[in-house]
Amino acid sequence: MDTSQMTHIQDEFDVSLETVEDARSLQDLKVRYLGKKGRVTGLMKEMKNLSNEERPAYGQKVNELRRNIEASIEEKSAEIEAAALEERLKNETIDVTLPGRKFNIGSQHPISRIIEDIEDFFIGLGYEIQEGYEVETDYYNFEALNLPKSHPARDMQDTFYISEEILLRTHTSPVQARVLEDRKGKEAVKIICPGKVYRRDSDDATHSHQFTQIEGLVVDKNIHMSDLKGTLELFAKEIFGTEREIRLRPSFFPFTEPSVEVDISCFKCKGAGCNVCKQSGWIEILGAGMVHPNVLRMAGYDPDEYSGFAFGMGPDRVAMLRYGIEDIRHLYTNDLRFINQFKQTEDGGENVESI
Ligand code: FA5
């Protein structure tokens, strides 16, 4: 038996193995020696040409060669894997001395904050929150509120019409009409309805063509004007400070009778007169009144049995008063220098000074 061929194969393999640097060329080498058509496999096939006496020793030698090659390949494979891991760890090193990334913490928009405060107050009094549709029908925005077509009071709210019957709601009052209709004239109602409204007003320091309103509505048996007054007094003290007084002035809304404008005593000058209250000592904050019998009747309520009050306020104007914002347009122009002044402090409080 000539074993020089095996020695030759082993030597050649050792030389080739020296040049291998990655897993792929190691696999190629493995195929070249141990694969189906590999050189060691070729030696195995030679066995059939040997005599019975020669065969065991030859087989033993070839197996030895195969084991050596397999062991070398395994060793090399472990080396390559370790080197790759080393390389990866080197690249993934974290430099803990680098400065950290700065995260900008957002802040709640002043209008959202006012709306949440007002919602919290009314939820505490047992009110439900109801939302309606910004795109409304003429019927719920006007007719169901005692404002038939061509009623002159429609001019009080210049309207964006989408078609003759569809419009962008001009106030949140259509929500009261819808809820009353839903309750089918039987159940008591106690709701507030916050949301966006739209009017064809020219934008200026106190007017925006899109702004927010919060509507309030209470309908039940034995609801009186004194309930409205008591509720709004509590509201004014909660939102503007405990020393606030309110004043009701006669007014007109087609959906309430009687109707009132509600003023609060000025929180800046305490009634003495200043630039915020235009020297009058009072600031107008909302419109309100007792629900008109026609509105109750149209929704299926019997006005002899049920009565109610409603009010509507503008959170934009409330935010302007509370934070001393002199121009309503600041609330809508997304200037970060403005918004950042309303960042909340860590304990959830405000870091802006109320006027
Ligand atoms: C109404 O819209 C009535 N629906 C309110 C109401 C409800 C009365 C229920 C009675 C019963 P008025 O048009 O006054 O009323 O608007 C209410 C509030 O919206 C105003 O006090 C004001 O704060 C705000 N507002 C009105 N127009 C604008 C505007 N263009 N920009 C910003 N705020 C406005």
From TrEMBL:
Signal peptide: none annotated. Binds 2 magnesium ions per tetramer. Its EC number is 6.1.1.20. SUPFAM superfamilies: Class II aaRS and biotin synthetases, tRNA-binding arm. InterPro entries: aa-tRNA-synth_II, aa-tRNA-synth_II/BPL/LPL, Phe-tRNA-synth_IIc_asu, Phe-tRNA_ligase_II_N, Phe_tRNA_ligase_alpha1_bac, Phenylalanyl-tRNA_Synthase, tRNA-bd_arm. One of its GO terms (biological process) is phenylalanyl-tRNA aminoacylation. It is found in: Cytoplasm. Pfam families: Phe_tRNA-synt_N, tRNA-synt_2d. Residues 112-321 form the Aminoacyl-transfer RNA synthetases class-II family profile domain. Keywords: Aminoacyl-tRNA synthetase, ATP-binding, Coiled coil, Cytoplasm, Ligase, Magnesium, Metal-binding, Nucleotide-binding, Protein biosynthesis. It is an enzyme of class 6 (ligase). GO terms for cellular component: cytoplasm. Mg(2+) binds at residue 257. It comes from the Bacteria. Residues 66-95 form a coiled coil. GO terms for molecular function: ATP binding; catalytic activity, acting on a protein; magnesium ion binding; phenylalanine-tRNA ligase activity; transferase activity; tRNA binding. The keyword Ribonucleoprotein does not apply. It catalyses: tRNA(Phe) + L-phenylalanine + ATP = L-phenylalanyl-tRNA(Phe) + AMP + diphosphate + H(+). Its cofactor is Mg(2+). Tetramer of two alpha and two beta subunits. Belongs to the class-II aminoacyl-tRNA synthetase family. Phe-tRNA synthetase alpha subunit type 1 subfamily. NCBIfam families: pheS (TIGR00468). This is Phenylalanine--tRNA ligase alpha subunit. It comes from Salinicoccus kekensis. The lineage of its organism: Bacteria, Bacillati, Bacillota, Bacilli, Bacillales.
